């Protein structure tokens, strides 16, 4: 019996060691979300100018509304790409942004 106790203790400690290694936290996933100019318009209306309906990201975030005659767009102000990313997903950890197709904004988050 006394010979078995050290062997059992060694086995128990080995199991605890294996459990502690497997209990390390998982690495956070990185996701990219694409926001179209219409989605950016929501940010522009909320944070830049309430008359904004569309936003374009082309190196900077520009906001626009329809012209008086409906014949085009009128510039309403500039926004921040990083602030737009934070606006859309405030619970995600913001990592960065890039330009997408058709002047969309791509936001990278850690979730």
List the helices and strands and how they pair.
Elements: H1 4-22, E1 30-35, H2 37-47, E2 54-57, E3 61-66, E4 73-79, H3 81-88, E5 93-99, E6 105-110
Antiparallel strand pairs: 1-6, 2-3, 3-4, 5-6
Describe this structure in words.
- The chain has 111 residues and is α+β, with helices and mostly antiparallel strands.
- The protein contains three helices and six strands, in the order αβαβββαββ.
- It has helices at residues 4-22, 37-47, 81-88, and strands at 30-35, 54-57, 61-66, 73-79, 93-99, 105-110.
- Strand 5 and strand 6 form a beta hairpin.
- The radius of gyration is 26 Å and the shape is elongated.
- Mean pLDDT is 84; it is low at 15-23.
Quick summary:
The protein has 111 residues and is α+β, with helices and mostly antiparallel strands. It contains 3 helices and 6 strands. It is elongated and about 55 Å long.
């Amino acid at each position: 019996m006394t010979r078995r106790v050290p062997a059992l203790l060694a086995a128990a400690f080995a199991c605890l060691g294996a459990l502690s290694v497997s209990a390390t936290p998982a690495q956070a996933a990185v996701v990219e979300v694409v926001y179209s100019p219409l989605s950016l318009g929501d940010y522009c209306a909320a944070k830049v100018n309430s008359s904004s309906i569309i936003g374009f990201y082309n190196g900077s975030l520009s906001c626009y509304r329809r012209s008086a005659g409906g014949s085009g767009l009128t510039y309403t102000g500039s926004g921040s790409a990083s602030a737009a990313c934070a606006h859309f997903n405030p619970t995600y950890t913001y990592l960065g942004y890039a330009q997408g197709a058709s002047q969309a904004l791509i936001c990278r988050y850690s979730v």
